[in-house]
Amino acid sequence: MYVMSDGKMAMQLAKDSDIHVITGLLKLYFRELPESLFTDALYPNLVTGMGTVALFFIHSFIYCLN
Predict the structure, then answer these.
(1) What is the largest CA-CA distance in the chain?
(2) With helix as H, strand as E and coil as C, how does the chain read?
(3) What is the per-residue pLDDT across 11-52, written as a single tens digit (0 to 9) for each?
(4) Closest CA to 20 of 11, 28, 9, 8
(5) Which candidate, 24, 7, 27, places its Cα nearest to that of 15?
(6) What values do phi and psi take at 34, rounded to 5?
(7) Where are the domains positioned within the chain?
(8) Cα 31 vs. chain centroid, distance in angstroms?
(9) Is the distance from CB of 46 to CB of 52 less than 8 angstroms?
(10) How many whole angstroms separate alpha carbon 5 and alpha carbon 12?
(11) C-alpha span between 29 and 59 (Å, rounded)
């Protein structure tokens, strides 16, 4: 059993465990939160921001091709 009280314990867990175990624990932690990270009030801003970032990368990619 690991207690995540400091960064040293987290680093030891990362060295001793498979990446799939670590990501599974992280997903479980996010599921157990009382409120989601992106609340209903922030969700429209998140979607808009993701679209803006995607358009920026597409524009940059096309610019590099020319």
Answers:
(1) 54
(2) CCCCCCHHHHHHHHHHCCHHHHHHHHHHHHHHCCCCCCCCCCHHHHHHHHHHHHHHHHHHHHHHHC
(3) 666 676 788 888 888 898 888 888 888 788 888 888 888 778
(4) 28
(5) 7
(6) -65, -30
(7) 1-34, 38-66
(8) 13
(9) no
(10) 12
(11) 36
13 Cβ contact partners less than 8 Å away, ≥ 6 residues apart: 2, 4, 22
Does residue 33 contact residue 27 with C-beta atoms inside 8 Å? Answer: no
Higher pLDDT, 57 or 3: 57
Tokens 């801003």 locate to 45
